[in-house]
Amino acid sequence: MNNLALSDKEFRLYRDMIFEVAGISMSDAKKSLVSGRLAKRIRQHNLSNYGDYFRLLMHDPAEQQIAVDLLTTNETYFFREPKHFVFLRERILPELEDRSPLRVWSGACSTGEEPYSIAMTLAEALGNRPWELLASDLSTRVLEKARGGLYRMNDAEDIPRPLLVKYCFRGVGENAGALLIAPALRNRMSFQQINLNAPLPQLGAFEVIFLRNVMIYFDLETKRQVMRRLLPMLRPGGYFIVSHSESLNGVCDELKVVAPSIYRKPHA
C-alpha cells in the first residue's frame, strides 16, 4: 500500500476522464500530480492500485466529484492581477452606472479570493446602488471554502488596507490568526457549482464576466465551445476579462480587445 504506482495506461484513463468531465487537457507532465493527489483516496478506500480506484469512479458519482475536485488546480489569491480591479473601478463601473442591478459573474471562483475581491470593489465604488455577484466553480470542495469566507490572516497581504478594515474581520478564539469576510458582503453574493464544459443553467445576463486562469487548461476547440456557451450571457456593451497569460485570439471573434486581457461585446 505504500508503493502505489500510476502506470501510463492508468494515467491515460484519468486524463481522458478529466477532459470529458471538465474539458481540461493534461499533458504527460501531470502524471505525478494525478498520482500524488489521488493516493490518499486510494488508501482510504483500501484499494491496491489506481486501476481499482478508477473503476470505483465509474460507478460512484460522488467519489468521481471528489477526484475531479482533487485534480483541478485552484491557485488563487486576493486582488490577483490588480490592474483588472483598477479597470473595473475606474472604467467599467462609471460606464455602466445606469445598469441596475449591475450583474457580475466570477466563472472560476476557486476558493473565493477573486469574487470577494470583486465584491469589495463593487461595494466600495457603488455604495448603496444594487449589484449582484455570482461565483461559480466546478469543484464543490473549493466552493464550500469560498462560501465560508474564512482565510488565513497571511492571505490578506494583497487586500488594500482600507478595504481590509471595512470588509474583513480578524478572527478571535478558535479562529485566531484567521480572516473572515464580513457577513454583510458575503450575503450579497451567491455561489453555485457550474461546469463550463457542459450546457449552462439559466443564469440571466451579466455586464461583466471574469474567466481568468481557466482556459489555459483547455485545448482550442474546448475554448471555442466554452465561449459559445458564455457569449449569450454577456450583455451588449458588457466586458469579458481573462488572465494576462490568456488570449481569445482565434477563439472568439465577437469580442473586441479594449485593453490587455480585457474584451468587450459590441452594442447590438
UniProtKB/TrEMBL annotation:
It is an enzyme of class 2 (transferase). It catalyses: L-glutamyl-[protein] + S-adenosyl-L-methionine = [protein]-L-glutamate 5-O-methyl ester + S-adenosyl-L-homocysteine. Keywords: Methyltransferase, S-adenosyl-L-methionine, Transferase. Its EC number is 2.1.1.80. S-adenosyl-L-methionine binds at residues 74, 76, 80, 114, 137, 195-196, 212-213. InterPro entries: Bact_Chemotaxis_MeTrfase, Chemotaxis_MeTrfase_CheR, CheR_C, CheR_MeTrfase, CheR_N, CheR_N_sf, SAM-dependent_MTases_sf. It comes from the Bacteria. It holds the Pfam family CheR_N. One of its GO terms (biological process) is methylation. Residues 1-268 form the CheR-type methyltransferase domain. One of its GO terms (molecular function) is protein-glutamate O-methyltransferase activity. Methylation of the membrane-bound methyl-accepting chemotaxis proteins (MCP) to form gamma-glutamyl methyl ester residues in MCP. This is Chemotaxis protein methyltransferase. It comes from Pseudomonas thivervalensis.
